[in-house]
Automatic annotation (TrEMBL):
High-level lineage: Bacteria, Bacillati, Bacillota, Bacilli, Bacillales
Swiss-Prot/TrEMBL keywords: Membrane, Transmembrane, Transmembrane helix
Signal peptide: none
Descriptive protein name: Stage V sporulation protein AE
Protein source organism: Salibacterium salarium
Transmembrane segments: 6-24, 83-112
InterPro entries: Spore_V_AE, SpoVA
Highest taxon of the lineage: Bacteria
A Pfam family of this chain: SpoVAC_SpoVAEB
Length: 116
């Protein structure tokens, strides 16, 4: 049943993003930014972790999970280290994903030539 709920929740997040682009005519950049902010808000309100527990990868794979990770890391580090933990917590939780994106983008740029 976890696969079903992962599909429904992940698909629902994707449908929301598609509706934002089609109905509200938002650009992909505005849509992604909005979804990251929504994930951050839901984590700040304590609603994103129960969603992850319920749907697993359906909530951890979409872009909303990045907003969740930012707030979750900042709040966890703020409890331990105070105000400076807000800054360091953001980087601690998301650094592996951001580093991987930079490295793999660089490798892809070396392997392929852009069409001009």
């Amino acid at each position: 049943m976890i696969y079903f709920w992962a599909f429904v929740v992940g698909g629902g997040i994707c449908v929301l993003g598609q509706l934002m682009m089609d109905v509200f005519k938002l650009t992909p950049a505005h849509t992604m930014s909005t979804l990251v902010v929504l994930g951050a808000i839901f984590d700040g309100l304590g609603l994103y972790e129960p969603l992850i527990d319920f749907s697993g990868a359906g909530a951890t794979v979409p872009i909303t999970s990045f907003g969740n990770a930012l707030v979750h890391g900042a709040m966890a580090e703020a409890e331990q280290n105070g105000f400076i933990g807000v800054i360091t917590g953001i980087f601690e939780v998301t650094s592996a994903g951001i580093s991987a994106a930079i490295i793999f983008s660089f490798l892809a740029a070396l392997c392929f030539k852009p069409k001009g």
